[in-house]
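lol so apparently i was supposed to do this last week
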Amino acid sequence: VGKKLYLGMDFGTSGARYALIDKEGNVRAEGKREYPLLMIEETVDWLQSWKMTLFALLKDIPVGLRSTVVSISIDGTSATTIILDSKTGESLCKPFLYNESCADALPSVKSIAPANHTVCSGSSTLCKLVSWWNSDNSTKESTVLLHQADWLLWLLHGKLGVSDYNNALKVGYDPEIEFYPPWLLLQPYSRVLPSIQPPGTAIGALKESIRTEYGFPKDCIICSGTTDSVAAFLAARASQPGKAVTSLGSTLAIKLLSTRRVEDARFGVYSHRLDDKWLVGGASNTGGAVLRQIFTDEQLEKLSEQINPAEASPFDYYPLQGVGERFPVADPKMEPRLHPRPASDVEYLHGILESIARIEAKGYSLLKDLGSTPVEEVFTAGGGSKNEKWIKIRERVLGLPVSKALQTEAAYGAALLAMKGASEHKDGSL
Ligand code: ADP
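anyway here it is w/ adenosine-5'-diphosphate bound
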């Protein structure tokens, strides 16, 4: 009999990945699939596409390893919303995708929710629910709302109506009191809301039919999941307060583990609960997309090699792709600042990288001012994380240890949740 293994799956915007890990966190197998984009009446049938991908990934797991998979968890895109008949499990409408806006529901949501609550955005799960509720004429007697990850997990365990407090944040769940707030419970549609568990909680056994068809073991359990961005943070294993992950992708996003919950709608700052801690996040519009407007990735590599990171750049830019910034400066009219451009491209790139580092430092400093645990160490994810010179520049500007995160795949974070669920689960309690 082999070692126990834990399976995590990540359902992103264009495809899904899996990571199979052991107790020590070693990756034993991994893989990915693009969504097949099955069509129904000239639009993508997302539910069938996701379902097919889920089972395709299960088939991709090496046969010899499947019998040692003791738990499974899944993360999905945040605010992707599915409304189902709770008796039959049939969907009652097309899923609402993460970025879809239901602005028609905003006035109604704003009239019940506290000012600046995370649900007060057209793409929030609650706006999607209210929009559907107001436009659907059925009796809605047996209806349940699930997020993408919940729905996929339901296909595996068969218990309808369970979610986690990370996915449920944008439908209005309050993870601090571990309850839906009174202003939400007063609404007629509150009865369709799922019950909530902490991410990585054992929910049920893997369905027997799937278990026998694929060769998973009898005691394989399915655990509640999380959102894709929380799963990506979990992957870096920054599990102590003060540890942070900066994502240097097209944009710059920072996430810091804190003992205190921090929220400030002006800056788009909010916190996800992670057991007894809070994951505080903020996202700037600066980042790699601007670099790509000026340099090719190849130039970025060549020019970076010539930068002396110990030296401070005299240039002070604010690289933005368009007008407007939210975090760490809330100014919808802020103009990009990328001048003066020195004759040397090396100096120019140095100035841009250093300016982005200053914005990152300002971001962490703002989170502290808003009440979070001060940052102590920064891990880095995203396309910019491979730039060693940038890491050195950031260490100097932030005055902190900075390194590339060893793991950044959300699927790896989901696998860690599966491991957590398996270790906390007592036999026979499902
Ligand atoms: P996305 O947010 O689109 O998923 P990625 O995480 O793939 O982005 O990162 C892509 C970004 O990484 C690009 O915008 C590019 O400017 C940046 N990038 C690529 N190579 C380098 C490099 N050597 N140094 C700094 N940035 C880089």
